[in-house]
Design a protein that fits this description.
alpha+beta; 15 helices; 22 strands
Amino acid sequence: MPNTAPRSIVVIDVGATNAKVVQIGPDLTIMQDRSVPVAPLDGGLYQILDSEAVLNFASAAILDFDRRTSVDAIVPCTHGSALALLTADGELALPMMSYLARVPDDIAQIYDTIAPAFDEVRAPTNPGALTLGRQLLWQETYWPDAFAQVDSILPYAQYIAFRLCGVRATEVSAMGAQTHLWAPEARAYSSLARVRGWDSLFPPMRAADDVLGQIRDMELTGRGDVLCGVHDSNANYVRYLSGGPMVLLSTGTWIIAFDSDGSIMGLDGARDQVSNTTVSGAPVACARFMGGEEYARIAGRDNPHRASVAGVAALVRDGVMALPSFTDSGGPVPHRGGRGEILGTSSIMEEALANLATLYTAQMTSVALDALGRTEKVVVDGPFATNIAFLQTLCALMPGRRILRALEAQGTALGSASLAIGAAAPEPRIDPVATPDIPGLEAYHHHWMAAAIA
């Protein structure tokens, strides 16, 4: 972390569906931002990430932002399911794989025989290419000559940092994001990574807030310190680490619950309960499902309607249900991947679909939280913190919990920026959520659960 307060911080926030570049002040106010879609490309070998387009977009934004307020710090922040395989001269030995790539059947079968035990890595083998160990096995097996040229492997955020400042590093929250390459309790590389020799290809571990160097090939008025960077959901969690027992519900494409008081010893991989790793290296009990993606598949990606509690209550009254799951990415209801369906009506308006998607994600979230632990305080951060119907429905489903919402948008970016500020970073602003009256919700949810596990 820099010794002097930055005049502005730029966060490069690369998620599964969008990349954002956000300029943030030292008081954690958002000054300006830009975003661009990041759909995977057909790379010939497999679906790939267009990291070059992300870097070009970010570089242009940094230059433009610096003209308004000097950029003293830059923090990369990305999802945790991508790796850059670099040659000695810093080129990509193989394209960066999208976690949406379809893993060949033979690789999936081989991986099943070598995957580390759940009790070691506290993560199941995820569908597709979500598990980084499976990505590496595929690349090593199918393209051995290219893999033999690999000099170092970098997590996505650290690859962005490398491209900006030329320093190679590894960071613990990225390694501990259900990769199968990290053993969270041992705080060391997993048996799989060691046996395959992959552990020796990762550069030295650096803290998320370490300044790796100054930005190259760009004339800025600010210092341009490039920090090591962080896994996106863990960036959200950074600002809440000193706030006492709580669950952080980090929302976006994924909904991920971080339970500060949860035990990782009893995690159930079949329910997509996993360990994440904080920026300090500590394991934290989590549950997750692809809530934002499932919402979009139910409501429609371009649905302009906002949900309402009255609309949710109407669905409950009429018995209209969305049953899991609308993706095959795991979640709190086992054995339902790709089986999502809507019951109770043959046609439904766009407005009702927004209400149904809201009711569904609130139900899935409540199931995930109930299975994870009993911590009373739940703070909702991210896009779902602006969906009042979701928040209030979650309250009604979980009367024993205290649901609060983060008032600041872009919690991932603010958490990342706080790494450049340290202890002087202001605490997040949160507000309690009121519990509505939704007649019949308890009985409706009981029937939903019975149908979901049938």
